[in-house]
Structure formats: structure tokens, C-alpha cells
Amino acid sequence: MIDLLKVFRTKSRLFYLFLITLGLIGSFTNMGILMLINEAFSGKATFLTSSGIPGYAVFVFLILVSFVSTAVFQNYMVALTNSVMFSLELSVIKKVRTASYESFEKMGAEKIYAAIGDTRILSRVPEIFVTLINSLVTIVCSFLYFFWISPLACLVVLLLMSVLLVVYLYRNGKIEKDLNKVRDLQDVYYFSLRELLGGFRQIRISWLRNNNIYNRHILHNRNKSKDLSTQVSKKYVSNELTGVYSWYLVLGLVIYLIPAIFKTNSGELAAFITTVLFMMSPVSRLIMVIPFYATLRIAVERIGKIDEQLEVDALPDPTAGNFTREFNTLRFEDIHYRYMAEDSSSFTLELEDFTVSKGEIIFIVGGNGCGKTTFINLLTALCRAQGGKVFIDEEEVDWLTYAAFSNNMAVVYTNQVLFQENYDDHDMSASNRRLLELEHMLNLKGILKINVEENRADVNLSRGQQKRLALLLALLEDKPIVVLDEWAAEQDPRNKKLFYTEWLQEMKRIGKTVIAVTHDEDFFHVADRVVRFEYGKIIADTCITREPA
Ligand SMILES: Nc1ncnc2c1ncn2[C@@H]1O[C@H](COP(=O)(O)OP(=O)(O)OP(=O)(O)O)[C@@H](O)[C@H]1O
């Protein structure tokens, strides 16, 4: 759970000090101004002017103090507000960076986008604090002054105000439920947007699909959200209006009922009325601020949930250092992994005893749904095994150490995303001999376009070419282990043949360990081992013997 106060405290140690100081200055100036106004009405001097200082001088002084302190505090708050917003936004992104693949998949990108949107609401907290402190201080001071003039009259007003406040808060609580529903609709809306934008081509090509996603999902969701938001806003406005107008009830009580009950003189009456009028603006500001709490609580809850869910099976922090490590063997013993599905029929992958030795070419084969990709996700520590042991060079390591070790793997997944930016810091210039060699070997000469100024490759290529570029970039990473998930599936026959008969052998020659998922039976003979999966288990692990050349 994100600790809001901690965020504020770490952002500024002066935060509480500023709040208290503003509160004290506020009480001092508010009380003073209120007393000066009543002095002017009643003609009676108070301790403020009894020393001979003219009232106007005290008035100017108090206003100046109030102005300067508020200006200083506001500037401080502007800086703090921006700082808090950045911190919260980045805290969500930091959690995503170390999340396990499974928790990320389960959550869905749309919830993360929505949570980042929520952090904007939280950024208003400092501004709301100022309003809250200012208003509360003015109201408390006004009541103290009221109490000083007439304790009984003050208690009657206080009682009425408390009743009005309880009614107001009760109605507000009911609105909060609807607000939660609006926020749920927002999550569903982001989900549809992801489908629309991610599957743009499929949506664009089919009118039926196009109409259905728009009418049944997006438009339907937005209409529901619009109606519910309108209802919520109307309820809020009505509650606010009732809250503000109830204040006239208090004013009426002070003007007509209190003088009749307590037999007040005209001076006291003037003081009562001025005090009530003085409180009017802070009370309405306070009423406006209260609904914000509902929105804030919902936002904090949602960010907290994201935080908790992404925390599950978190991986090592990528900023924690360099994980490069040589190895001779990797061994998995009694490893099992089960998808966290609600029904009991969920798929389980089991590795009773499986070893990868340095320099091997291992093919992972088997029918659709037998667990090959799940195995790759475990091997690359994208998912965390629920049990079993992992050994690096026969030394048992815990899962976090293994997850850190997985940084020694260069992976090309089936639906690999080719980043536009060069996040790997590869040298893409013509002086990089390795780049030129790989470009030549992978038949990318004349195809690959390098933006020399920005040191990155243009990724607008055909699918097969993109896969070759992905392999080129993976080999440029120069990691000891190369993992490929159905890499050759989109290659033309010539490149496919070259991949199996030459490129893989070249990788082996330079010392790489290659683990490749494949369905290409015609080339199984080029591997050192063929590991066959069925229903989540290894049913055969065959060493391929080759005739000496
Ligand atoms: N995110 C998931 N949640 C629940 N079950 C899943 C999930 N992903 C895969 N599965 C199930 O796990 C099993 C193995 O899936 P996996 O993707 O590992 O198969 P595969 O051997 O790679 O198949 P293919 O050859 O089609 O790529 C399947 O039965 C699938 O339904």
C-alpha cells in the first residue's frame, strides 16, 4: 500500500512544519481581523488597539502577514505538488519494472494506465491541504470568538451545524459508491481502447467487428459512464447546494432566534452576525473539498491494489547491479509451475530433472499447448516456479538469484516487440564490425536501415525481416545463452534452412548455449538434444549423435 504521508514527508521534511506555521499565522490573522471588524461595529477597543496603535495600522499589518505567508506557502506547495505527482507516477512504473510476467498479464496494461491517471488526482492533495487548513483555522477561530462573546449562543449554533454536517456526510457517503462504479467503467473502457488500438488492422478490415467494438463496448460503456457521472455530479451539486444554503439557516437562527432566546444587545448581535458571515466562505470551501476525499480514497485504494498485485513474485530490481555470471550447467529439479486459474483444470508444467549444459543446442518440441512457451517463461524467469530447486553449476540458488542470472540470456519471443529506441546501447555505427558481420550473416544487407545520428535501426520491415533484426540485436547483446521461441516460423525456406544449418552452428562455434522452441521436424537433426514435451512434462530427452565430419 502506498503510504501517502510518507511520500509527502520524503518529498519535504518541512511539510508538517509549514502546515503548522500556516495554521498558527492563519489563526492569528483571522482572529485579529475578526476582532477589528467587530471593534468597528461596537466602537469598543480590544487589546489589539488598546496600546494606542491605530486600528487601520493593525489591519494593514494583519493583511500583509496573511498575504506574505499565504504567498510563500503557495509557492512551496506548487513545488511540492509537482514533486509528489512525479513520485507517485514513477512509483507505479517502478513496480511494473520488477513485476513478474504473470502478475503483469493478470492485471492488464489498461489498469496500469488508469492508475497512472489516478496519480494526477493525488497530486491535488497539497492544494486541498491548504484549503482545509485555512478553512478549518478560520472556522475554529470564529467559534472561539463566538464562544468568548456568548458561550450559550455559540453552543446552539455549534449543535445546529453538527446536525447539518452529519446529514451532509451521510449523503456524500452514498454518492461514493456510484463514484466507484464510474471508476470501474473507466477500467473496462481502457480495456476496449487497448483492443481497438492494438488490433487496429483487424478492426479496420471488418465492418461487423468495427461496429461491434464501437457500439456494444465503447459507446455502451461511455453512455453508461456519462449517465452515472451526470447522476453523481447532480447529487454532488445538490448536496453542496444544500450544504451551502443550510448556512442561511444558521444565519437566520443567529439573526432571529438567538436574540429572542438570549436577550442579546445590538453590539453582541452585530458580533454574532459578522462572525457567521466571516465563516460563510470557509464553510463553503470546506464543503467543496469534502467530495474530493471520496475521489482521493478511491484513487489511493486502486493504486494500492496495483501496488500489491505487482508486488507478487516481484523480480530483482534491475538497478541492483551487474548479474553477469559464467556457468557450465543449469539444473532444474522437481520444478513445477501452475497457472493461477480459478478452476482446478489449470495447466501445470513439471520439470523432474532437467539440465542445460554450456554450449549445447537444445530444441524444445511438442504439440500445441504442451507447455513449451510456459517452459521458456520459467527458464527466462519471467514466471516464478511454485516449487522445486534450481542449481547453477550444482550450487543451489534461490529463485531471486536465478531471476538475476536470467539476465545472462538474450531472448527472442514469438511476438517479439522491436523497440524503436536503442535501449540496449548497441553501437549501430559502420565502425561496429560485429554488426556488419551479423548483418551479412542474417541476410540483412541492403535491408537494414540505420539512423546513424540517433544510433538506432529502422524497425519498419516485413515480419520475417523483423525477426532477423531481432536475432541480430539479440546476438549483439553477446549474452552466453540464446533463447528462441519459434524463431524460424516466419522465415522463407532459404533463410529457414540457413538458420538451422549455418547460423545455429555459428552460435555454437562462438560458445553460445542455444535453447530453441521449434516445430520444424526436418531440422531436428541439427540440435545436440531434442526435448519433447507432452501435457506439461518432458516425455523424451534425446541426444543427437552425428557422424564425425
Ligand atoms: N496465461 C495463461 N493462463 C492460464 N493458462 C495458460 C496461460 N497461458 C497458457 N496457458 C495454458 O498452458 C498450456 C501450455 O501453454 P503454452 O503456451 O506453454 O503451450 P505451447 O506448447 O507453447 O503451445 P504452442 O505450440 O501453441 O505455442 C496451454 O494449455 C494453455 O491453455
UniProtKB/TrEMBL annotation:
Segments traversing the membrane: 14-37, 128-146, 152-170, 244-263, 269-296
Example of a GO cellular component annotation carried by this entry: plasma membrane
Domain of life: Bacteria
Annotated compartments: Cell membrane
Residues annotated as domain ABC transporter: 330-549
Residues of the ABC transmembrane type-1 domain: 17-295
Topology with respect to the bilayer: Multi-pass membrane protein
Single annotated GO MF: ATP binding
Record's keyword terms, sorted: ATP-binding, Membrane, Nucleotide-binding, Transmembrane, Transmembrane helix
Pfam families: ABC_membrane, ABC_tran
This protein's name: ABC transporter related
